[in-house]
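YM 10:42: Coenzyme PQQ synthesis protein D (PqqD) sequence, as discussed on the call
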Amino acid sequence: MKDNFLLYVPKKSEKVNWEKRGDKVMFLFYHDKLIEKMVRLFVKKPRVTTLELDDIGTAVWELIDGEKNVYEIGQQLKERFGERVEPLYERLSLFMRYLNRRGWIYFSKKGDTK
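YM 10:58: structure's back
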């Protein structure tokens, strides 16, 4: 029997750098490794690149508090954005799994102390 993904509790990784700029969340990626510094010498690549989340992505990120599970986050998104987030749980699951694959969040179950 599979676990129900909606019961998983997402938690933000301490490894991801992010900040709020205006009303959007921005992920910050610092290119400070030796190879990246060398590449910057030859290619005009900035030391920091950013990824700006849209309003729904920003809301999801802000709702990730280590307490709410995926279902609860979805319910709050539905209250705030209504039909804009439909199909809600399919979209939310894809986004959460993307964040997880990138190492920006991880999951636990309610009651886990990870």
